[in-house]
From TrEMBL:
Pfam families: TPP_enzyme_C, TPP_enzyme_M, TPP_enzyme_N. This is Acetolactate synthase. NCBIfam families: acolac_lg (TIGR00118). CDD domains: TPP_AHAS (cd02015), TPP_PYR_POX_like (cd07035). Pathway: Amino-acid biosynthesis; L-valine biosynthesis; L-valine from pyruvate: step 1/4; Amino-acid biosynthesis; L-isoleucine biosynthesis; L-isoleucine from 2-oxobutanoate: step 1/4. The lineage of its organism: Bacteria, Bacillati, Candidatus Dormiibacterota, Candidatus Dormibacteria, Candidatus Aeolococcales. It comes from Candidatus Aeolococcus gillhamiae. The keyword Amino-acid biosynthesis applies.
Length: 577
């Protein structure tokens, strides 16, 4: 066992200076960071942590059934409450590697998560020891930063740094790989009291005043302005500033998939989701705008479609983002501002004069009438949008909604219907199937007073359905809606529309009886294929205290529209007919 230098008698009388094991130091540091919930799975290389965990009843440990589920749960915990950081434990080798997908999901969507993985003893690192893997190398591309701790004295400052890195600037996941022998060793623990200062991860810069004045000037001169907002607005808490700017200068405002929820859908100036599966009227507005203001978004291919089709009539593009790497990466702006969205918009607002461009707003209202977000009902066949309309009617602009990946995700985003900003969580950057169900556990534990709905397809749900055991064991009150079309829906639509109509390996010819499956895990479970049952089923689920699984057998041929065909431009969208 590694032993630290013996402490002096004078030091031992100081209650702030104690000799603790490395595992105990981890827990002391987590408490110092305000952590109250840990998602985790024990194994050989992190057993010293679990040996001391019972001594810290302040920490609620949630035993997940798979490490990927733990990473997604930590993501949902952090993503659903501004300022929170998700924490997840795993052992070495396969345990740590099972988290890679969850860390990649958090990294792409800028979610602060701290993962602490056990590792083989320091002396065994690099020897191909049992359950050893190169966790740092494996996670380097999907974390904001990774640490391999090799000295017990470094545990406390490393954890403090990890939390700083996770929350600073553009948030993201951080991994700490902690060898087993350091968890068992003892050393003097001195709490970290000095703030972290790191040149590589500085605080967000203050917005440039000259650029702010230029942006205000462009807003004043614009005849056809449009604002597009992304998840950066939600992370920074800039929703009210966006609304105020939009109203003051009468700027129609749309959003990315990850920006859904940042702007009230029922606002007269609201556009809708933009891009590949965005609303037709939003795409038309972007393509006809003379000023485009991009706030807290990455401008990826799902937004721009074919890049040369994006905003062809624009005279000026303004891009505000906290991450300088995103400025000009895809769309080159005329004015760029590296700053936190809330700070930037708060400083911009006093410089913007009230204005109204009646002709532009009238034109957009016409486009909304010509290209509404709609679906085609088929008599007697349950449509997914009908289920979602009933669900959103019961959200009361307050519930947290999580959507998995696929057609269910886009339906849920396009029919999101809040009159004020709200939380709509989904895996946007990586498109990780299986994300929503475990993430909904984290969201509910992070927000116990909120109603939580999880919308999934049957394909994505079974990818992490093992977490039903966690959900029941912890009695986590989540309402799960499975939109069941007996296929990998989005893949099926792509094959039908873009690959010659050849359906290959896409039909889920066998799916479980979800009612029996839910009941086998101890969940309340219901199923229907009739619209008349949807409302009463949702009401029964909401009234139930505990997790509920609802299966809705929907139209097997229901598709997402509008959609831009692959390789086409923004204005080539195809609508429901």
């Amino acid at each position: 066992m590694i032993q630290a230098r013996p402490s002096s008698g004078a030091e031992e009388t100081d209650p702030e200076r104690r000799v603790l094991t490395g595992a105990e130091i981890v827990f002391e540091c987590l408490l110092a960071e305000g952590v109250s919930t840990i998602f985790g799975y024990p194994g050989g290389a992190n057993l010293p942590l679990y040996q001391h965990l019972p001594s810290y009843p302040q920490l609620h440990h949630v035993l997940v059934r798979h490490e990927q589920g733990g990473a997604h749960a930590a993501d949902g915990y952090a993503r659903s409450r501004r300022g929170a950081i998700g924490v997840v434990f795993a052992t070495s080798g396969p345990g740590a590697l099972n988290m890679v997908t969850g860390l990649a999901t958090a990294y792409a969507d800028s979610v602060p998560v701290v993962a602490i993985t056990g590792q083989v003893p320091v002396t065994a690192v690099g020897t191909d020891a049992f359950q050893e893997s190169d966790v740092i190398g494996s996670t380097m591309s999907v974390t904001k930063h990774s640490y391999l701790v090799t000295r017990i004295e470094d545990i406390a400052p490393t954890i403090q740094e990890a939390f700083h890195v996770a929350r600073s600037g553009r948030p993201g996941p951080v991994l700490i790989d902690l060898p087993k022998d350091l968890q068992q060793a003892t050393a003097e623990y001195v709490p970290c009291t000095e703030p972290v200062r790191m040149r590589s991860f500085p605080d967000a810069p203050q917005p440039d005043s000259m650029k702010l004045r230029r942006i205000a000037q462009l807003i004043g001169e614009a005849k056809r302005p449009v604002m597009l907002i992304g998840r950066g607005v939600i992370i920074s808490g800039a929703e009210e500033q966006v609304i105020e700017l939009s109203h003051r200068a009468n700027i129609p405002t749309g959003w990315t998939l990850l920006g859904t929820g940042a702007y009230p859908v029922r606002d007269p100036l609201a556009l809708q989701m933009v891009g590949f599966m965005g609303a037709g009227f939003t795409n038309r507005a972007v393509c006809d705008a003379d000023l485009l203001i991009l706030v807290g978004m990455r401008c990826d291919d799902r937004v721009t479609t074919r890049l040369d089709s994006f905003a062809p009539r624009v005279e000026h593009i303004v891009h505000i983002d906290i991450d300088p790497a995103e400025i000009g990466k895809n769309v080159v702006p005329h004015v760029s501002l590296v700053a936190d969205a809330r700070s930037a918009l708060s400083a911009l607002l006093p410089l913007v004069e009230p204005k109204r461009e009646h002709e532009w707003l009238t034109t957009i209202d016409q486009w909304k009438e010509e290209h509404p977000v709609k679906f085609v009902a088929r008599n007697g066949i349950l449509q997914p949008q009908e289920v979602l309309q009933e669900m959103y009617a019961r959200c009361h602009d307050e519930a947290i909604v999580l959507a998995d990946v696929g057609l269910n995700q886009i339906w849920a985003a396009l029919w999101f219907d809040y009159g004020k900003p709200g939380y709509f969580l989904n895996s946007g950057g990586t498109g990780t199937m299986g994300y929503a169900f475990p993430a909904s556990m984290g969201a509910k534990l992070s927000n116990p007073d909120k109603t939580v709905f999880c919308v999934s397809g049957e394909g994505g749900f079974v990818m992490n359905m093992q977490e039903m055991a966690t959900m029941v064991e912890q009695n986590i009150d989540v309402n799960v809606l499975i939109l069941n079309n007996a296929s990998l829906g989005m893949v099926r639509q792509f094959q039908d529309d873009f690959y010659g109509g050849i359906r290959s390996a896409v039909d889920l010819t066998f799916t479980p009886d979800f009612v029996k499956l839910g009941e086998a895990f101890g969940m309340k479970a219901m199923s229907t294929d009739k619209y008349s049952d949807v409302g009463p089923m949702l009401d029964e689920a909401i009234a139930h205290r505990g997790p509920v699984l609802m299966n809705f057998d929907i139209d097997k041929d229901a598709n997402v529209y509008p959609i831009v065909p692959l390789g086409k431009g923004m204005l080539d969208f195809v609508e429901a007919s």
